Amino acid sequence: MIAEKARFRHARKLERLAGYRIPDQAFHGATLEAISSRLNFDRLDHTLHDQLVNFIHAFLRCSCRHAPLCGCPEKKFSREILELRENGLDHRQISQYLLEEYGIDIYPADILSFLEDSVHVLEAIEDIARLMDRPALSQSAKEHIGLLER
Fold first, then answer.
1. Which of 44, 81, 92, 118 is most buried per CB count within 10 Å?
2. What pTM did the predictor assign?
């Protein structure tokens, strides 16, 4: 999953603020727990503060009982990448956007691989929808493929 490849650029700063070792993976359970409950946001520099607030608003807001360990943050992150691509950003621009907006480092090649895998999944959905006589679903999958491949 693409969320496993996302890393916080300033993980060591977050670690110092939390007072204990935190993995640098953005969607690791310990990292999500620290961000959602243990950090003193007043001690963060302005840029990191804004990035973490953006991260929380974009990925950690859900009403699941086990939030933030429910899987929703990872799904929202994947959706964000797909939406950025559908809006015309290439894999390098998406990587840069994630770094600037959320402080997340992710290699452009990992994003490109994720997008290619997503197209293959959508092609399978399109084929199955066509076989199951679900033209609306088939057409929707085809439209998303077109947006991802442009």
1. 81
2. 0.90
